[in-house]
Amino acid sequence: MPRIRSSSRLSSFLPAELRRPLLAGAGVFVAAWSFVSFLPAYGDWLFGDVRFYDNWANMMSNHLVPYRDFNLEYPPGALPMFLVPVYLRKLAGYYSTYYFWFRIELLVVGLLVLLAMAYALAHLGASRRRAYAALCFAGTGPVLLGPDALARFDYWPALLAVAAVAALVARRPMLACGLAAAGTAAKVYPAVLIPLALIELWRRHGRRAAAKGLSLALAVVGAITVPFVIVAPHGLSWALHRQLNRPLQVESLGAVFFGAAHQIAGVHLHVVESAGSDNLVGSGPHLAGTLSSVLTLLAPLAVYALYARSEGTREELATASVAAVTAYVAFSKVFSPQYLVWLIPLVPLVGGRRGLRASALLFVIVGMTQIWSPYRYGDYHTMHTAWLIWLAFARDLLVLVLLAVLAWPSGRNANELDSVRPAVV
To answer: What is the crossing angle of helices 352-372 and 128-139, to 10°?
Structure first.
């Protein structure tokens, strides 16, 4: 069966066999982006957090310093995504609104996500059919998730994360350390990829190389955050405290168990709006939030341990990377719908029947999420609408199933599915 050649034989950034799958995925993404951006039925739901980005960006463009002159909860690596639409609009003669140019920015970032995926697939030796399937699946992201995909900046950390995974499977773990660290400075979760890069450095180049990789990661995070530590230490510490001490968000795994208990046994729930989300408060939810934080640390550690015992193939490395991010999403005490943007470009990188099962599960998970968010979120977050609570409960359990599919050790060849796929000529 024809296969995409490995990186040692590439005459350019991508092999010729991969260009059509990439163009197909890009076409699907542009169509999905256009459908969500311009369909009138979606219009009222595209503001999301962008209204905050607009406000912060205008303050920054007027020379106010984030964290010092106004409070901002996101890490400094997110700031470019907020600010760029202001200047794009200015270059266009102030045509349209900040919201339009923010979506244009997401269009560009989303296409770069697909490019990073294609690079990863090239180094994974994926067949053309697998490449078509992976890239077109990822291209449907805006339609699968709906307005939440284009009303948040999460395609930016998703780009840095998938680029880090691409660097890992290309056997460039030092570059992966830098990219994952940049992602960490944008939205924290890409940090779960850094230990895998360090394992690769230790395994292939020794302890000193791993120390250099860790130093590089710390240097990248420091270069992005230290200037703000210097000029606005109190504001940055406020943002860090706000994120670390967030209560149990109503869509998280821990919260949906309380929702189920409320429906079955009438357990009293107290929902409050704080830290930018709707959360459960009380002694029980507080304990569940603490447990979630612990599991968010321990679950990726289990993934690292399993990978360290593996043969370390490119497919195993890609699967471990996706499993680590999925573990973070599954057990986090906050599970906002846009977090699924992180998984949409990663899960399709997994090969074989494992990858097919994982992608099918992700398709169902994302589709279930759009049923209540954003359209019926007002009914859901009160935790009184029974069918929505059970839907969220089932969704979160399916995320655990997805994690199990990705992390469960298997002696089968990760490329086995390619052997039953007809060649694309």
So the answer is: 10
Furthest CA-CA distance within the chain:
64
Query: Given strand 248-249, what is the order of strands in its sheet?
Result: 248-249, 277-281, 270-274
Give how far Cα 137 sits from Cα of 105, 158, 227, Å: 21, 15, 39
pTM of the model: 0.93
Length of the chain: 425
Cis peptide before 142 (omega within 30 of 0): no
Per-residue pLDDT of 215-256, as tens digits, reads: 999 999 999 999 999 999 999 999 998 888 899 999 999 999
> pLDDT tier at 383 (50, 70, 90 boundaries)?
confident
- Model confidence pLDDT, tens digit, residues 331-373: 999 999 999 999 999 999 999 999 999 999 999 999 999 999 9
CB atoms within 10 A of CB 154: 28
3-state SS assignment for residue 261? helix
Query: Which tokens go with 10?
Result: 């590439």
* Confidence band for 130, pLDDT divided at 50, 70 and 90: very high
For 189-225, write each residue's pLDDT tens digit.
Answer: 999 999 999 999 999 999 999 999 999 999 999 999 9
